[in-house]
Structure formats: C-alpha cells, structure tokens
Design brief:
With about 450 residues, the chain is mostly helical. It has a single domain, classed as Up-down Bundle (Amino acid/polyamine transporter I), CATH 1.20.1740.10. It is built from 19 helices and no strands. It has helices at about 15-25, 30-40, 45-75, 80-90, 95-130, 135-150, 150-170, 175-200, 205-215, 220-235, 240-245, 255-285, 295-305, 310-345, 350-370, 385-410, 415-420, 425-450, 455. Helix 1 crosses helix 14. It is globular and about 65 Å long. The structure holds tryptophan (TRP). Tryptophan (TRP) binds near residues 27, 109 and 242. The site of tryptophan (TRP) has 16 residues, from helix 1, helix 2, helix 10 and helix 14.
C-alpha cells in the first residue's frame, strides 16, 4: 500500500473536533470518577497518584499516539488493521493476535462496566426520589448495601445499560455519538467543579489534598504500582483497540500528536478534579478512604444531601455520569462489532445484537459477585475483581506493550513520518524514543516488580 490515505468503510468523523470529543468521551468515564478515587483510596493516596501520573506521561501518551497512528493507517477493525499493517511492513501475521486480544479485553471490560454504570442509573432514581435529602453517612451506606444485595435490581439496570449501548453501536458510532458528547462532556466537568467548590468548604479540603498529593511510599504496595499503571491504560482507553478504531475514522490531515495531548490532558484533569472533590468529603464525614468500589456512591450523595439545590445537582450529576459511561462503553465493543461486519459480512445491527447478548450474559457473573456469589473466589478474588484485575492490570498493559513494540520497532520510520505528517522532528524523535525504550521498559519493570521478582533480582 502506498502512502496515499485509505478510507474506512465504516465512515469518517466530520471534523477534527469530533474525533477529539469522541476519544475524550471514550476516555472519560467511570474510570475517572468511580475507579480512580476508589483505587487511589485503597492504595494510600499520594504515592499511588504520583505513579499513576508518571505512567500517564511516559507510557500513556506515547502509546495513545501510537494507537491512533495504527488506526488511521489501517482504517479497519483492529484485527484487520494489524493484519494489513504487518503485511505492509513485512512482519509476522501473528501481530493480528494483538487485535484479537483487544476484542476479548473490550468484551470482558464492558461486561462489568455495564453493571457499575447500572449503579449510576439507580442513583439517578434515588436522587429524584429525594432519598438522600439531609441524610447521614450511615443511611447512605445502607442504600448502597441494599442495592448490591439485590441481584434483580442490578440485573435490571445492567440490562438497560447494555441495551442503550448497543443501540448507539448498531446505528453507527458517528451518527449516534457526535453531537451528544460535545455537549455532555463539558457539562460533566462543570458539575465536578461545583462539587469541588462544595468540597473546599467542607472543612477537610486540605486533608483531602494532602491525602491525594503527598506521596507516602510506605502506603504503596507492589500490586498498588501495577494497579496504578493498569489504570493509566484503563482511563485512557488504551491497549485494546478502542482508540485504534476511533483513529481509523480520523481525517488524514489532522495532527495526531496534538490531538492525543488534548485527550490525555482532559482525561487527567477530570480524574484529579473528581479526586479533589471526593476526598475532602470522605474526611469531613469520617469515612474510610479505602472503602472500595462503593466510595463515590457513599460520599457524593452525602454532599448532595447537604448542599443547597442538592436534589437538582445530584440528579444531574448521576445522569451525566451515566452519559460518560455510555460514551465509553460504546468504544469497548466497537472493535468486535466492526470485525463481525468486515469478516462475517454481518449487518451492524445483527453484529450489535450478538455482541450485546454475549456481554450481558457475562455481566451476570459480576451482578452475582456482589451478592449470591460474594464468597466464591478465584485467587482470592470475586468474579468482578478477577475480571477487573485480568483486564486492567494484565491485558491492557500487555496490549500497550505490544503496540509500543510494533510501532516503535516493527514499523518503518518512513511510514511513521508519513502518517504523523509533522514538521516537528525533535518532538517526533522524543516520542519515538519514549515508545521504543521507555514504554517497554516501564511496563516490563512494573510487571516484574509486582510479582516480587525484581526485588529478588536486584
Ligand atoms: N476509559 C474509560 C473509563 O475511564 C473506559 C474505557 C472505554 C476503556 N474504552 C476503553 C478502557 C478501552 C480500556 C480500553 O471509564
């Protein structure tokens, strides 16, 4: 194939900004608002946050650029993109496996992502009903515990979430998503800033900031470091082809690097503002920062219950959280659907229904892991915890590692320069260096240290 750009059969974004918003819509989601605060809390705060930010800078950003580049050059589903690019570059056809592992990871992640998004939906209803008005920490906790103990309720919301996700995917990501995301993302951010203002007056703002930003390395475990790196991939939607497929709809004339920087910056800001809003509320109310996956759902309702206009802001917040999850979930299943369309000649709608049913079924495992199966463990983990660990901490970093190796080492410099179309050769070289040396080394070191092997070696 020559350097002339090809087009995706699935269409193209209508402008540069649509790609930025869609990719940001994919990146900003439950990972930022639900997961980041709770894993930061579980892993002792500051030191964890520092490792996470480092991973974003030296691993996340370079891999983001590489993944967009692969997508735009291949212009197909991640599996077929890897197949045709490895052929073009004269490399092993086995690179296709990278696409496959991504499809699998996306499917596994969506199955539990949907259940958590269902919690947000349930909280919209609780907010509207005024459940939390003037409530105490204990009552908020009870509402959350009762939700988790109710498999039927969880199933209902999980089902609803899968349905709305698959409707957008069936209609084609571009048609359904473009306009919604451009309006919803900024609204969510405004609401987070309102919460931040509330947190500043909570009486424990400094305590919250200290927890979040003062590194205490004695609080960070080996597995905590792995979790921080895994989360850098998770929160940026990297390592499984989501950003690749979005990149495949990107116009040839737009700058990949500049776009990637904007997405990474926006995503990190949302997570940090969410953290800065949540931890002061945690400390002001004597709650436990390491409370686990329920953290956001046990703290924010308290704030909404106490603030003026809390009913309105609270309802709006959980609606927007649902939309943030929605715009992320679409990108998790898009690679699988596009592959079925390309290789099995399916209609988008048929492919979406099949993927939706499979994901729904697997998601039932997560639903039950919070109640009936809460004592069923593999490697000391419930079904939900195992899926989360396997995908975020293992599959995504491995995917990212191989993306870095392919783009860094297996792709010719000529193809890369042509695709990046950059005037800034110095910046290109910095990126290339990070991708070839720093990213693979960082991922390997984090993997090794998490098993305790590194400590034995040195
Ligand atoms: N980044 C999203 C979040 O933070 C989740 C997500 C969407 C994702 N697409 C992905 C994670 C692809 C990994 C890979 O909520």
């Amino acid at each position: 194939m020559s350097d002339s750009p090809r087009n995706s059969i699935h269409g193209q974004w209508s402008s540069r900004w649509v790609f930025v918003f869609a990719a940001t819509g994919s990146a900003v989601g439950l990972g930022n608002i639900w997961k980041f605060p709770y894993i930061a809390g579980e892993n002792g705060g500051g030191a964890f946050v520092l490792v996470y930010l480092l991973c974003i800078a030296v691993v996340g950003l370079p891999v983001m650029i590489a993944e967009i580049l692969l997508g735009r050059r291949g212009r197909q589903s991640p599996i077929n993109t890897m197949a045709s690019l490895s052929r073009e570059e004269g490399r092993s056809p086995l690179w296709k496996l990278l696409g496959w592992s991504g499809v699998l990871a996306g499917f596994l992640i969506l199955s539990y992502y949907s259940v958590i998004a269902g919690w947000a939906l349930n909280y919209v209803l609780e907010m509207v009903n005024g459940t939390f008005t003037g409530t105490s920490a204990g009552q908020v906790q009870t509402v959350f515990d009762e939700l988790l103990a109710d498999p039927l309720k969880l199933t209902l919301w999980h089902t609803l979430f899968i349905i709305v996700t698959m409707i957008v995917v069936a209609r084609g990501v571009r048609g359904g998503l473009e306009k919604a995301v451009m309006f919803l993302m900024p609204s969510l951010f405004v609401l987070l800033v309102i919460l931040l203002a509330y947190a500043m007056n909570s009486g424990a703002f400094i305590e919250g900031l200290t927890f979040l930003f003062m590194p205490d390395f004695s609080a960070l475990t080996r597995e905590g470091v792995l979790t921080a790196m895994g989360h850098a991939f998770f929160t940026l939607s990297l390592g499984m082809g989501a950003i690749m497929i979005y990149g495949s709809y990107m116009r040839s004339q737009d700058s990949i690097a500049r776009t990637a920087i904007m997405i990474v910056f926006a995503d990190t800001m949302v997570a940090l503002v969410a953290g800065m809003a949540i931890f002061p509320i945690v400390f002001a109310n004597g709650l436990e920062p390491g409370a686990g996956p329920g953290l956001v759902f046990q703290t924010l309702p308290l704030a909404f219950g106490q603030m003026d206009g809390g009913l309105f802001f609270g309802t709006l917040f959980f609606i927007l959280l649902f939309f943030a999850a929605w715009s992320s979930s679409i990108s998790l299943i898009e690679p699988a659907v596009t592959w079925l369309v390309e290789n099995r000649n399916m209609k988008r709608i048929t492919a979406s229904i099949i993927c939706g049913i499979a994901t729904w079924l697997l998601g039932m495992g997560t639903v039950l892991s919070f109640n009936l199966w809460s004592e069923v463990k593999w490697f000391d983990r419930t079904f939900f915890e195992l899926l989360d660990f396997l995908t975020a901490n293992i599959m995504l970093p491995l995917g990212g590692l191989f993306i870095a190796i392919f783009v860094g080492w297996s792709m010719s410099r000529k193809s890369k320069v042509a695709e990046m179309a950059t005037k800034y050769l110095f910046a290109f070289n910095v990126w290339s260096f990070l991708l070839r040396y720093v990213t693979p080394l960082a991922v390997t070191v984090v993997f090794l240290q998490s098993t305790g092997l590194l400590a034995k070696l040195i």
